[in-house]
Structure formats: C-alpha cells, structure tokens
Amino acid sequence: MKKVISLLLILFIALLPSAALAADSSVCFIATNNNLLPLTSQAISQGGQYYVPADIFAQFRIYSSYHSSSETAELSSGSKQFFFNMSTGETYDSENSYYSTSAVMRGSTVYVPVDFVCRQFGLSWSYIRGSGYGDVCRITDSSEVLTDELFMRAARPLIQGRYEEYINSGLYPGGENDDVSGADSVIFLSFQGLPSDNALSLLEAYGIKATFFLSAGDIESSPGTVRRIVGEGHNVGALCSANPEREFEEFSDALWLAAHTTTIMIAASARDYNPVCEAYADENGLLFCSYTIDGVRSGLGLTVSDLTNAFANGRPQIAYLRIQCCTLTDSNLTGIINTLRNGSVVLAACESTEP
Question: Is there a single domain that holds both residue 12 and residue 28?
Fold first, then answer.
C-alpha cells in the first residue's frame, strides 16, 4: 500500500498542469549584493543543500582554483583557505580541520555549498522565491545593499527578460522535455549498475536525468563515478536481492561514504527477488521501484531494435524502463535516447531521493 500511495503521489505531481509547477523550481538566479548574475551561472539544489559555482565568490575577493592532478578545488581569501577534494568528497581548511560537507561537480564546473562558504567567510545568503520567472539565491556582504524585497522589486524586469530569453534559447534543461501536462507518453528512466563516463556524458548532453540502482559493491568499486552521478543531478537507489535488510544497510553506508547522501529507493536485481525486496520496502517506509519495460534482460543490455519492438503496439501512457549498464547498452545509447525522446517525455524514475 505504501508503494502504491508513493507512486500515485509522484505521478500526480509529475502530471500537474505546467502552470501549477512554478518555473522557480527549475531556474535559480544568483545575485551578489545588488547585482543579478546572468543565467549562465545558477544555483542548484541537491540533498537538501544549495550549491553555487565556486567562481562567483570572486566578487567578494574570495578566489577559486581547481587542481586537476589532485582533483581538488580551493577557495581562498586573504586570511582563509578551504579545500574540496572532488575524488574523496572531503572538505578541509589550511589547518587540516575537516568539515562534514562536500563540493559537487557539474560538467567541468565546481559547485560549493553556499551556506557553508558564507558562514566560513562572513557572508550572508537568502533564498528568495520568485513568481513565475525563477527563484533567486542572493549572497551579500557587509556592504550597503537593498533588502530582499526591494531588490526583487527593482530586479523584476531584468529577471523576467533574462528568464524568457533563457528558456527560449534551447539551453533550458527543464523546458519542453519536462512539461508532461500534454504528453501522450511519459517514460520513467532508470539504469541498473555503474554507467560509463560516456553514458553519463550523453545523458548530460541531452539534458536527461535518470535513476541508477547500485549495489554496495558497485559503489565501493567506483566511488568517483557515484559522486559524478549524484553531482550531475541523477538519483541513486539501492539494488538488492535475497537479503535486502543487510544489503540496504551495506549500500547506505557505502553511499554515504562515497557521496554524503542517502536514498529511500530500493529495487530488486532480478524479478525473482521482487517479493522480498518489496516487502522489506513496505515494512521500512522505503519506495520499491520495479519496471514495466525490461531493458535489463538478464544483464544483456538493450539495443535500439529491442526498444522499438517494445513499442510495436504503441507507447503506454506511463512506462517504467530500466536498462542494464553494459557494453551493448553503451554502444546503443544515443539511438535509445533519440527513440525515447521521439514521442515521449523522459523523466528520472521515481524522483524521491532525500538527504
């Protein structure tokens, strides 16, 4: 029953008319003092925190750099230095004091937690809900600045103009592909196993978010890949089999160590394990996720031909597709994405991860 209610809530939210889904949730401007930055720089939300590009703090004489050899980003002012190791997820200062927060990477841009940085460098910040043209993450120092209310009043024409220019530019990742109000078909996309760098790059290029179901062993074998998955805005769920209680605990520990995040999503690694995994999810307030289109195929992966055959009798109004991460899927992924997008809106399966 919990699973049914959870899925109904997810679908209800996804299928609301676009007017009810405020654009503010998809576009977030950044403002520094009284200056509204272009939408080439935006704040993002992940795991209950807001992140901004590290380089925007240069306007407060806090300078950023990235050392690719050590995969470490640095923020420094005249008196303080903080380091964000993108490989390990560790954050520490010049005195080797460690902090329970991490930076994330989106593409080639380092995003840092805005609350943490502001507290450490004596800045203030606020999150201002917009009214249909995007929200604003505003960072201020001790300079004389407008109140948030006066700032929004003064900046409204600029916000509206930049917002409309942005969503009509083709760069807006939450544009028509995420408007499901008039869609004939919605595909909730998930993958099983660790993706290749190429697969993640393709999803990023197409602006598609997915859910990746992983085991503890997957995470431990490639924590960097898991951090990239989380950092690029995808969901992560636990992949379990005959002993979901032990496996979910091991998965949760590994996910926290690798990416400092958690999940309430669980899936079975094979259909034979669906009953035991679903029962464990119901007993523990988790969300069990299955699929209606099988792109796992006992670990074989999916081809464009397989997907076309699955739609031979027409596309269902709502479908849950899970694909095995493997060489065959990799070689077909561009065609798979184009096939899915031609006639369906593609969303991440069961978007319900939580911090």
Answer: no
